[in-house]
Each structure stands twice: as C-alpha cells, then as structure tokens.
C-alpha cells in the first residue's frame, strides 16, 4: 500500500484527514507502507519495555518529520500538536485511557509564565490531533497494536475555568519556591506529573528556591480526564449523560473545591434526618445507599453521574466515626485481580522515553492512587444519630504514593515467588495467615480479605473455609485464595483529615 505525504501541514483538517488513513491498521501495517520514509533501526519502536516509541514511529514514518521535544506544536504552521496514546478495554467492556496525556515539561530554570494562554503548555494543547491505539497486552509486540481513532480535539470551553485554576495552583506553588511539594492530587484536570525516576539524579534546582531541589515534572491531562474525552468526544456516537455540578459563572468566581465546600457547609452540625427534611428527600435507611443519595442531593445533583467528578476522577466517600472507635470501618480502595497483577511489569522491566523505570507508573494501583481524588463526607455518630461535620477534597500526597510503591514492589516479588500460607488453629477455628503486607507494615497501606466468607483451595487438594469458590481468586501458582483487596489504614485516613473533622476518643 502506498500513501504519499499528500497533506497540508498548515491545514488542521488536512492533517486530520491524512491521519484517518491509519484507522483500522496496525503499526506493523504502517511499517510496510511505502511512505518515502525509512524506519530508523536505532529506534526500538516495538520494545514493550519502553514508552513513547510508537508516537515517535508515527511522527517519523507516517508524517515524515523527525521526533523532537520542542516547546512549539508538532505542526507549527497549523498549530496542531500530535499525541499518540493508548486506550484499553476493561473487563466490564468500558473504555479507559491507557495513561495520562503528557503535554510538555515544567521548566524550573526560568520564571513561570503567568498567562496560561501565552504559555508553552497552551501551545501544546490548544489543538491536538489524538491518535488512539488499542493496547492489547496479549499481543507479542507493540507493533501489532491496532489504531482505532484519529481526531482533532480542542479543550472544551466549559472545562477551561477549571484548567485555568489548575494552572494557577501549579504555577503559584512553583513561584512560592515549593515545586518540591507539587503533587498531581493538587489539581482537577491539568496535573503536574513526575518525569524521571525517584533517584537523586532526577532532582533539579528551582528558580525560586535555590536551597531545595525538586522532582522533574511535566504538565499533563490526567488519566480520568482523558478517559472522559475518549468516551465522550472520540468514540463515535457515544452520548454524554452527566449533569454538571458547577456553572460557568460560579467557576469564574471560585475554584471547584470551594464550590463543593460551599454546597455542603450549610449542613454542618445537622443530623441526617434534619438534612433530609430541609432538602425534601425521603430517606429509607433500609437502603444501603441512602447516605450517598443524601450527599448528592446536598450537592444539588440527582445522582453520582457528575461531569466534573468523572473528569477529575473524584469519588464520594462517606467517613463515619462510630460511637466506639473499634467499630470504625477500614478504607477499601479496590479488589485485587491477582492474574492481572502478576502480568504487570516490575518497575525496572519497563522504561519511559528517557530510560527511567516506569513499571510502577503503569500499574493499576498507581493509576488508582494518582488519578483518583476523594470527597470525604464526614459524620459523627452519637446517641441521637449521625451528625454531619463537614467535607474535604483529598488526594494522596506524592510522598505517600512513594511508600505504597515500595509495598507494591514487595508484593510483586511475593506473588511471583508464591505467597506463603500458614494454616493454624485459633481457638475452635482454623485460620490461614499469609506474608502479604499487613496493616502494621508501613502505616498507610495493606492487603487483606474482602469476601463474605473465607475459602482456600491448595494444589494438594485441601480446602479450608466455610465459603465457596466464588469467595476466592485464582493465584498464578494454581492456589485459590479468599478474595483480597487494597486497603488504606483507617488511622492513615484519620491523619489526613482536617482537625475539625476528626473525632478524638476519650
């Protein structure tokens, strides 16, 4: 097949039409086309242990220009930036962005650019050509991945107020000499993601603070935001169904976090039944979701399909302080699929475009912690009922994510080598202990069961537990183990709350 470079580099629509020739083809298909451009043998395009290679391949082989890291757009005459990025199909059938979309490096060598619309990050995102390929990890080579979408994309006007505030949050922190304290959890849609390893060599001096070095970072559009873009702008015929929580007028006056605070603060000090009466919501306490329904009505929306929540990866989490401390519930993040977990690369088994370890940043757990924010809604229980104490928008700080990274690496090694089980009698019961990270290991994070009943099935045929096979997961070595989940220690979550939200027990 022959495709000549018959497109106008100064015309965005011409570039898009040319890019659409890729749809339905694999990277290997493109490699075989006669495109007046040779594949550089020194570029390891098909190396699954490196990121960025497929984007470079499309730039050089298909569009005919040399890959670079210039601050201007890839097609400067048209003002178009090219982004080749993966998407994945989850077990549920839902489509998800494969990773956040890195825009451009954050410079610590110069003064910050105060006007977003005059900045180099705006140059990189004002008009993007998004080329999506399906990342199928079962295929032997990256070059076998199929390209499914190619479309011009502009940041929607309704998102700009939040993006502008995100940019302000990031740049003001840098100007205050606190670039070393930046975290993706600081912002909603536009993030400051780490670039490079956590080693000392990845630390660079700050323009505004010569005393403390900071991690290399880049501006990015977060994974949750790009998932929304994929499903609502890129995939043909995908309808939008969410309602927006904040109006454009509100966002011009306040940040989204402040709007949330304002919506909920009027109910502080009120009991659940008082709140329900005030907002005229019928509360059925026999329904497990009644508290969630109450919260969304307090926010002024009908359900949990909130546009801003989807884009920013915000989940509402009700934290209740029981009358007795010992009855407080732990904080479950998500269940573990050990087969998928085992298939993930170790940190040093996949490298980013700069050659730094990237296995952790490609893991499901990292994406969960890095992309997700929680709206904590806090109640205190007393003799009368549950009283609303307030709310807090929270994301895990980068330093704590690094601690979880170490736990993840250790867990990977344990699963690869085979989990050690210790079967022993405990009173009249038989219990099964294991060597996965426990609650006391690091103060933040642990792994423990999440199932109705226990069930274990060992390779020698032994079964232990009162549950059934549906209460268990299959491990790589053939053992069945009671379903496990990632948990954050409740004591850690308590420590992250503002002081007026924490109950102090006598």
Structural class: alpha+beta
Largest sheet composition: 4 strands, mixed
Mean pLDDT: 88
Number of helices: 15
Order of adjacent strands in the largest pleated sheet? 2-1-4-5
What is the oligomeric state here? single chain
CATH class of the largest domain: Alpha Beta
Number of strands: 21
CATH superfamily of the largest domain, please? DNA mismatch repair MutH/Restriction endonuclease, type II
N→C terminal distance: 77 Å
> What percent of residues are in strands?
15-25%
Architecture (CATH level 2) name of the largest domain: 3-Layer(aba) Sandwich
Textual characterization of the structure:
- The protein has a four-stranded mixed β-sheet with strand order 2-1-4-5, with helices on both faces. The chain has a three-stranded antiparallel β-sheet with strand order 3-9-6. Strands 10-12-13 form a three-stranded mixed β-sheet.
- The model is unreliable at 237-241 (pLDDT under 50).
- The termini are far apart.
- Helix content is 27%, strand content 22%.
- It has 506 residues and is α+β, with helices and mostly antiparallel strands.
- A hairpin with a 5-residue loop joins strand 1 (81-89) and strand 2 (95-97).
Topology record:
Elements: H1 12-19, H2 27-32, H3 53-62, E1 81-89, E2 95-97, E3 101-105, H4 120-125, E4 128-134, E5 146-153, H5 160-175, E6 190-194, E7 203-204, E8 214-215, E9 217-221, H6 223-234, H7 248-253, H8 256-265, H9 272-279, H10 290-299, H11 307-312, E10 314-321, E11 331-335, H12 338-343, H13 364-371, E12 373-381, E13 386-394, H14 398-417, E14 421-426, E15 429-434, E16 445-449, E17 456-457, E18 463-464, E19 472-474, E20 480-482, E21 484-488, H15 490-496
Parallel strand pairs: 1-4, 10-12
Antiparallel strand pairs: 1-2, 3-9, 4-5, 6-9, 7-8, 11-21, 12-13, 14-15, 16-21, 17-18, 19-20
């Amino acid at each position: 097949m022959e495709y000549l470079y018959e497109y106008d580099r100064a015309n965005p629509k011409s570039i898009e039409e040319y890019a659409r020739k890729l749809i339905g083809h694999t990277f290997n298909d493109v490699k075989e086309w006669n495109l007046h451009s040779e594949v550089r043998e020194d570029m390891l395009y098909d190396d699954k242990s490196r990121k960025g290679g497929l984007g470079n391949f499309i730039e050089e082989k298909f569009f005919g220009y040399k890959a670079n890291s210039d601050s201007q757009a890839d097609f400067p005459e048209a003002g178009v930036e090219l982004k080749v990025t993966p998407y994945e199909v989850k077990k549920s059938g839902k489509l998800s962005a494969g990773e956040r979309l890195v825009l451009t490096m954050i410079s610590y060598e110069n003064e910050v650019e105060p006007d977003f619309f005059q900045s180099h990050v705006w140059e990189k995102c004002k008009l993007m050509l998004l080329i999506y390929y399906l990342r199928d990890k079962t295929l032997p080579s990256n070059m076998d991945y199929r390209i499914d979408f190619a479309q011009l994309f502009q940041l929607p006007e309704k998102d700009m107020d939040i993006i502008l505030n995100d940019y302000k949050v990031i740049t003001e922190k840098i100007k205050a000499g606190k670039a070393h304290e930046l975290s993706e959890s600081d912002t909603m849609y536009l993030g400051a993601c780490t670039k490079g390893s956590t080693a000392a060599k990845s630390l660079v001096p700050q323009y505004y603070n010569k005393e403390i070095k900071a991690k290399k970072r880049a501006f990015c559009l977060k994974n949750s935001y790009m998932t929304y873009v994929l499903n609502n702008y890129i995939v043909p015929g995908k309808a939008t169904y969410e309602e927006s929580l904040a109006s454009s007028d509100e966002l011009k006056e306040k940040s989204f976090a402040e709007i949330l605070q304002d919506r909920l603060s009027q109910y502080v000090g009120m009991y659940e039944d008082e709140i329900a009466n005030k907002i005229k919501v019928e509360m059925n306490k026999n329904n497990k979701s009644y508290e969630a329904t109450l919260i969304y009505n307090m926010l002024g929306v009908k359900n949990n399909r909130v546009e801003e929540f989807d884009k920013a990866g915000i989940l509402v989490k009700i934290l209740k302080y029981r009358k007795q401390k010992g009855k407080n519930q732990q904080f479950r993040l998500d269940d573990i699929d050990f087969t998928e977990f085992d298939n993930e690369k170790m940190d040093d088994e996949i490298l980013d475009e700069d050659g730094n370890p990237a296995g952790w940043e490609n893991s499901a757990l990292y994406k969960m912690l890095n992309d997700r924010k929680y709206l904590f809604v806090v109640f205190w229980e007393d003799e009368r009922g549950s009283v609303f104490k307030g709310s807090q928008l929270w994301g895990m700080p980068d330093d704590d994510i690094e601690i979880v990274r170490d736990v993840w690496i250790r867990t990977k090694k344990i699963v690869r080598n085979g989990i050690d089980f210790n079967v022993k009698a405990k009173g009249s019961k038989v219990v099964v202990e294991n060597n996965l990270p426990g609650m006391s290991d690091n103060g933040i994070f642990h792994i423990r069961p999440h199932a109705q009943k226990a069930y274990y099935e060992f390779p020698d045929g032994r079964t232990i537990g009162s549950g059934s096979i549906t209460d268990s997961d299959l491990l790589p070595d053939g053992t069945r183990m009671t379903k496990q989940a990632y948990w954050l220690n409740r004591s850690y979550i308590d420590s992250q709350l503002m002081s007026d939200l924490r109950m102090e027990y006598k």
